[in-house]
Write a structure and sequence with these properties.
It is a single chain. About 40% of the residues lie in helices and about 35% in strands. It is built from three helices and four strands; from the N terminus they run E-H-E-E-H-H-E. The chain has a four-stranded antiparallel β-sheet. The longest helix is centred in the first third of the chain and has 17 residues.
Length: about 100
């Protein structure tokens, strides 16, 4: 079983966000995580998010404990501060669930 999140976000700096993705991927993989789907959105018809949505993706982990450990990892937090904070204007977890 895996734990998965569907995330909608507003990417304001595509190059900065790409640097974030490249830097965080090896950390994510150490926690058994990865991406199943990743979409750049050209038009949002409806959202309850408080921010525009320009990117939607599914990120997975082996389980919830791995997800929590990844997001608390000191190296990940440094990468997030360096690249994510300035490149993303908002993010919303659309769904979180366990799947087979």
């Amino acid at each position: 079983m895996a734990h998965e999140l569907i995330v909608a976000m507003h990417v304001k700096d595509a190059a900065g966000y790409q640097r974030y993705r490249e830097a965080m991927r090896p950390i994510l993989e150490r926690y058994g995580g990865g991406f199943r789907h990743d979409f750049v959105v050209s038009e949002t018809l409806l959202t309850e998010a408080a921010h525009p949505v320009t990117r939607v993706f599914a990120i997975y982990f082996h389980d919830r404990a791995a997800k929590e450990a990844f997001f608390a990892d000191a190296e990940y937090l440094r990468v997030k501060a360096a690249h994510f904070e300035g490149s993303v204007g908002g993010s919303t977890i659309v769904a979180a669930y366990d799947r087979d």
